[in-house]
Amino acid sequence: MKISRNAPCPCGSGQKYKKCCLPKEEARDFSYRRISQTYQGLTGKLMYFAENALGPEAMEEAIDHFLLWGEELDSMETIEDLSPVMLPWILFSWYLMDVEIQELDFDISLPADTTVAELYVLKRPAKIDSLEFHILESVDRLVFSFHEVTSVSPGSGFACTDILTGNTHRVTDHGASEYLRQGDVFFCAISRIDDVELLAAASPVTFPLSWKTHVIDLRASLTGKRDSLTLEDLPNYEEEIRTLFLELYASSINPPALTNTDGEPLVPQTLHYDIVDPQEAFDALCHLCVTESPEELLTNADLAENGALAGVTIPWSRLEEGTAMSNTILGYIDIAAESMIIDVNSEERAETIRGIIASTMGDRAQYRTTSFGPPDGLDEDGDDEQATEHARMMQDPAIREYVENMFLEHWGQWIDTPIPALDDLTPRQAMSTPDGREKVEALIGSAELNSDEDRALQKQGIARARKELGI
To answer: 54 phi and psi, to 5 degrees?
Structure first.
């Protein structure tokens, strides 16, 4: 939010903003624009120099080094996507040792232990002005790490904390401040040039706060018996750090296959039947609902003029034990005058319900066909009648109270549930170590930042978990 020039300065000095921090911020913004433009121009010059001085084979070698010779990400599309983080790494961080140069099957004009930027300074000193030289000195040998965004000033910059070292930064970057959000975890290199902290390289994707647990695990493996890592330590573990980034990046662009609560691949489908009598179908299948009695189900039924059953929906469900959710919806059975359709989300559930119908109704229900895809009413964007109905239902105080209590129960049980991200410890157990506590805070913080529409309904449950864990 933009601060009025005559408003009290947010730093708490008691002075007006225009007399206190505004002049410093305006001067920093001017420096940022000048430095950023020069840096962008420099990277263009360096890429042109590298492609001509080193040749295509050397550039391919650099890309292979960045990707750690992995084949999964070695495609033109991925290389282009990774360019905002890979190209600065090639220009300012990549170098070869003597033994590596000797193993190459082509000649390379890059001396041992020399970056492209350093070679450019050696070969083209007359083409470098004073600001460019100053930037090259400040940016060379970039240090990459994972950072957690702690606050954002859209159009200006953002604050972040290096997860590996604990160092904090206040980065001036107009572009990144428009897409970064508090709680984002991202891979980048930050350089200080005079009074400006510049985002010299940044991953094209950010990761959810819950993924911070992977970075904490990496930190623990690197520190060993030491208490912490320093900025000077990170170049020694550059490959390990980049390996984790590439693994997380691959996971983000190739998410695991979606499954239902039983771990079955999601295959939404609708089974179509012809039936003889709605009442007969209801009587045969109403036992499949464990959350409502037959009488309760019929309160929402459609009746013919003569009072006979004309249509009704049966939620196919089962009771659960030992979980935060008391029951699981397996599908929906919609009974009409002469037809019946069943919506399920997996092949396994479709096969199960077909078996149940065959055994309970026999030839009184004739299977016709199965259509695949979301139920009628769902469009490709997910803005559908069900979403509208869900929103309407959430306006009912009784339903909201029920859902809030469900989340309250979930978070109450969550604190004593083994979590894979916590090495199969419960959150309560994980709180006994600093790393475990940080992981638990990341998982809870991720739930709080979740933009899901049910976030407000989870508020009490999350607050309960925080209070119970003492965070």
So the answer is: -100, -30
